[in-house]
TrEMBL record, chains A, B:
<comment type="function">
    <text>Catalyzes the reversible formation of acyl-phosphate (acyl-PO(4)) from acyl-[acyl-carrier-protein] (acyl-ACP). This enzyme utilizes acyl-ACP as fatty acyl donor, but not acyl-CoA.</text>
</comment>
<keyword id="KW-0443">Lipid metabolism</keyword>
<dbReference type="GO" id="GO:0005737">
    <property type="term" value="C:cytoplasm"/>
</dbReference>
<keyword id="KW-0444">Lipid biosynthesis</keyword>
<keyword id="KW-0594">Phospholipid biosynthesis</keyword>
<dbReference type="GO" id="GO:0008654">
    <property type="term" value="P:phospholipid biosynthetic process"/>
</dbReference>
<comment type="subunit">
    <text>Homodimer. Probably interacts with PlsY.</text>
</comment>
<keyword id="KW-0963">Cytoplasm</keyword>
<comment type="similarity">
    <text>Belongs to the PlsX family.</text>
</comment>
<keyword id="KW-0012">Acyltransferase</keyword>
<dbReference type="Pfam" id="PF02504">
    <property type="entry name" value="FA_synthesis"/>
</dbReference>
<keyword id="KW-1208">Phospholipid metabolism</keyword>
<dbReference type="InterPro" id="IPR003664">
    <property type="entry name" value="FA_synthesis"/>
</dbReference>
<dbReference type="GO" id="GO:0006633">
    <property type="term" value="P:fatty acid biosynthetic process"/>
</dbReference>
<protein>
    <recommendedName>
        <fullName>Phosphate acyltransferase</fullName>
        <ecNumber>2.3.1.274</ecNumber>
    </recommendedName>
</protein>
<dbReference type="InterPro" id="IPR012281">
    <property type="entry name" value="Phospholipid_synth_PlsX-like"/>
</dbReference>
<keyword id="KW-0808">Transferase</keyword>
Length: 335, 335
């Protein structure tokens, strides 16, 4: 199998991307196809290793930046690393595509170039959400700021299929984010989605209050992309601001400083639980091929992990599972 | 001035309520009217103090519980402590009402019994949000799960008036919660609200990403009640789960334990920044009299602070400021 990587996307590209590719080779069976400016990629590879037989380069001269307008960029920059990456998938010259570039363009490109899975109305971004118990998946993390009830149901199906097959969580519990736990709370979107999910094949837990999300109350956290994006960014903001307050406390006086040194190992452990690089990237679910969106500020480790999960995403047949399940239920009925 | 308190509302009522009232007397000029079961209140008072000349009791035999349906409860339980509290405000026998009881019933009662401020379409709950810099106000914290653009504008006006007059923050910065900072991001509700606020008299900052909220990027955080409730509860959930992870780290081995003891003072300081009891309660803005919703699990200190802020809410003429501003702009135009 071949995994295509956008060598030019992300704040630390191409260095961190190339580094991640090289270190992934020890942990995957697939070969890598790096897409981007050939000379630059070659020199980044040669800086790091002599043996890159399992890495091919496909040249692409243009770059889609974060400032580019998504749909326009994917349509006009036909020779960008992202557009060429999709082309490889389309022609079956690669099975998976990983990019840390412009999220909107990646979403637009996936829908336009790969197409949606039959029965799926809106693809979504699924983000791994670290909890006290382990990890949940949050879907949609920001692709769809406005949703219909059938979309939330689809998110539940897609999130479950990914968790079950890639992260080996059996019969994952699915909950909808709401402002109360009782049935009937919240707004119309939530209420209709609740009814659909309750009568579906999902292992449906019901409503979930945001307070319980960090404790891992459910495995699949379903919400529209607006709420999902707020949840992800707020979690990051609260955690980081707390850590910086804690740092102030820990460095206040010499006695605290000494204690802080003693605690350093423990705190490192604590910080690592919040480390997004462990999870590498967010799968884009609902399109016909596996696409992974890596974090814009991905370092080599994040890219390595994104590639690892990308390989599993393809090997475990997640897309086939989604297609089976969505067509068994006939989501079109919920329109 | 007289401040009416619902003696029967909240998880720790009536003990914590009575305790909070007694300790508030040292910090306020007003007198207190405790509303609820007279004999019980009397015995709670006598347990704690001999001198309660500044505290009156108004008897109310019924109690609205958290399980009661809001509108129904306020209509049928005419002799509940909450209903009687509103009656005192209506008859000008008290100026402010504080309750830690059923939030929905308090909202329904305020709208039905006191009425909305002229020009305000939807009253909202404004919650103090502790930040790294101090405190912001989040509005709406959960009263309106579905909003129109004019509502978000009104929330901005009401939040600003409260912050400026009660918390002495001059010309508070107002931001809308969105999933990107650029104009045009997000959904239709946000975009229309953005346009209204941009052309208003508010000190409008623009879009705010959830990540920046805990750092105090704006003073007034505007969002619909669904998103607001998610923000409040998630902040609590993330902070509490992090604290419990931290605790695990700190008690792992004997050396860490010793360090933890040394750090205890600092950690206490750290925890107190997250302590909602400092802020006491959330003002209900948009109705014709000052109403404060105290946290359901309020202790004496939280009640004392809710009373203190309730007094300022009335003394500083917040309601008059809101009425002036909303009618100057003519929010009805935005319908």
């Amino acid at each position: 199998m071949k995994i295509a990587i956008d060598a030019m996307g992300g704040d630390k590209a191409p260095g961190a991307i190339v580094e991640g590719c090289i270190s992934s080779l020890k942990e995957i069976d697939s070969n890598i196809v790096l897409v981007g400016k050939e000379q630059i990629i070659k020199s980044e590879l040669e800086k790091r290793t002599k043996d890159y037989r399992r890495i091919d380069i496909v040249n692409a001269d243009e770059i889609i930046s974060n400032e580019d307008k998504p749909v326009q960029a994917i349509r006009r920059k036909r020779n960008s690393s992202m557009a060429v990456g999709f082309k490889l998938l389309k022609k079956n010259e690669a099975e998976v595509f990983v990019s840390a570039g412009n999220t909107g363009a990646l979403l637009a490109g996936a829908s336009l170039r790969l197409g949606r899975i039959k029965g799926i109305d809106r693809p979504a971004i699924a983000s791994i959400y670290p909890t006290k118990k382990g990890s949940s998946i949050l879907i949609d993390a920001g692709a769809n700021a406005e949703c219909k009830p059938r979309n939330l149901y689809e998110f539940g199906v897609m999130g479950s299929a990914y968790l079950e097959n890639v992260l080996n969580i059996r019969n994952p519990k699915v909950g909808i984010v709401n402002i109360g736990t009782e049935e009937g709370k919240g707004n119309k979107l939530i209420n209709k989605s609740y009814d659909i999910m309750k009568s579906s094949n999902l292992n449906f837990y019901g409503n979930v209050e945001a307070r319980d999300i960090p404790y891992g109350i459910v495995d699949v956290i379903v919400c529209d992309g607006f709420v999902g994006n707020v949840i992800l960014k707020l979690t990051e903001g609260v955690a980081m601001s707390l850590m910086s307050m804690l740092k102030e406390v820990l460095t206040k006086d010499i006695f605290s400083k000494l204690s802080a040194i003693a605690l350093k190992g423990g705190l490192k452990d604590f910080k690592s639980r919040l480390d997004y690089t462990e999870y590498g990237g967010a799968p884009l679910l609902g399109v016909k091929k596996p696409v992974i969106k890596a974090h814009g500020s991905s370092n080599g480790k994040a890219i390595k992990n994104a590639i690892k999960y990308g390989e599993l995403f393809s090997q475990r047949g997640v897309i086939e599972r989604i297609e089976e399940e969505i067509n068994r239920m006939g989501a079109d009925e919920f329109e």
